[in-house]
Design a protein that fits this description.
The protein is 25% helix and 21% strand. It is of the alpha+beta class. The longest helix has 17 residues. The protein is globular. 30% of the residues are buried.
Amino acid sequence: MAGEPQADCLFCKIVAGEIPATIVRETETTVAFRDISPQAPTHVLVIPRVHYPDGATLAAAEPLVAADVLREAGEVAAQEKVDTTGYRIVFNTGPGAGQTVFHAHAHVLGGRDLQRLV
């Protein structure tokens, strides 16, 4: 069921503490951790603790949690000190856009020139 942890979901397992991750922030509704294959010097994923397959589905079902993900992305940028130099928040949706884990998540990218596409 949407919103419930999925046994086969990597990010649900990270939320549950079953798989280790380098966590940089946690709130009641979100977890933020470093990407294992960073595309920029700062590359942190912000995920909701609830399971939805993508950002649009999350926003439709739980808009306050979606807002929490975005707010935490900004907090991560400030914590990582990329908020003044510029950063990008990216939601990939679907395999054609590069989504490989079907649990809503925002990529926070910074620490280098991001004027070209990632």
